Amino acid sequence: MTVQNSYWANQGPVEAVVIGASAGGVEALLTIFADLKPGFRLPIIVVLHLPDERRSQVAEVFARRLPVPVREAQDKQPIEPGTLYFAAPGYHLSIEHDHSFSLSQEERVHYSRPAIDYLFESAADVYQQRLAAVLLTGANQDGARGMSLVKELGGLTIIQDPDEAQVSTMPRAALDLCQPDCILPLRGIGRLLVELEHNACY
Amino acid sequence: MHRNTDIELRLLIEAIYLKYSYDFRDYSGASIKRRVNHALRQFDCNTISALQERILHDPTAFMQLLQFLTIPVSEMFRDPEHFLAIRQEVVPILKTYPSLKIWIAGCSTGEEVYSMAILLREEGLLDRTIIYATDINPRSLEKAKQGIFSLENIRAYTHNYQKAGGQRSFADYYTAAYDYAIFDKTLRENVTFADHSLATDSVFSETNLISCRNVLIYFNKNLQNRAFGLFEESLCHRGFLMLGSKETLDFSDYSKQFTSVLKQERIYRKL
């Protein structure tokens, strides 16, 4: 895959990547991150639905397997380049205009807190066309509305091919609401992340 | 260049401050924006400017909007480990004081207040404690004063209570009537509910312990520092400060004035 590829040839440089995943998400994320190399410089921010446990091990699990720093996103913390962030369980995660995180405990969205919609919408608001949003496998409708706003504000939108997704409900719900720039299998999404990095703006 | 919605949002927040003295100017932007957008749909307004016009000329409409701007999401014994830690690590020290003043800042609809009162009663401390429970939302305070909670949440609260080291049957503390649990009113005999804003008001009393949980996440750093300043001023020497599980003093202007008693449980002590 090259930067000239038609579906994102017109896309300008990207400053951040947001990813939403639910049922089947851990495996899917590990697949798309398999191509990450040390020195990757885009920040990647992930909402992964998990059972409501106060202390999640997910950041540790990914930290052991990936060559980039992995953290749980903390309230008011500035977003660092080249870092993979996970939303903390039980709190919504948003991005502020000063490129820091904020947490909140508003009502659940589609039974979920953190909600993918809230991350995507706030990130779209801040980064506009300098954002790439990726929606993966899942058993609910979260992320569809957020994806539409990313699209509306000019960001790059990527949805996992529902035929390949472990649970196709979430990608299908998003496809019902918006036409993304690309529909890709996990391997393709992984390669696209690496390409985005080459085209990133620092 | 600012987009129209960002300009309108800033103007709305300024208008609310000038007209009603509620100060949301240093709240975290993303959450406020979502809540205003949510209110737009409920108020049937197409733009934030239209909403601004409504609330500026109609105080009742503003009071309705305030319900959207504050987050009345709470539960009893939320994060049971936190309450267990209070019981095990903090209560033994509190027991050495002849009397106690506790401030629950941002008490919302009162779940934290009743949780604290139950814990103090079981530890034999409630009779010599005064609790100040404050919030900016008068309707939430009214609800807190009544101590009536939906029965559908009681199962979860009971589970929390047990995990938090509860010593009795949780049902001892309420009477079920229809779909509600009416909490024992003697729990709030020593509770003063009051309107207080961490954004605009000052300290009203010296206290031994302050609990302010899941309030500061809605503030920007500037306002968080203001709140920490109030807490520092109000707390007596070696007084306790309890925060929500994702809130921290560490990066604030006041990190040097406090020491962490239990980092994981966000329990601090004033130096």
From TrEMBL, chain B:
GO molecular function: methyltransferase activity
Coiled-coil intervals, chain numbering: none
GO annotation, biological process: methylation
Pfam families recorded: CheR (PF01739), CheR_N (PF03705)
Keywords: Methyltransferase, Transferase
Protein name as annotated: CheR family methyltransferase
UniProt superkingdom: Bacteria
CheR-type methyltransferase domain residues: 1-249
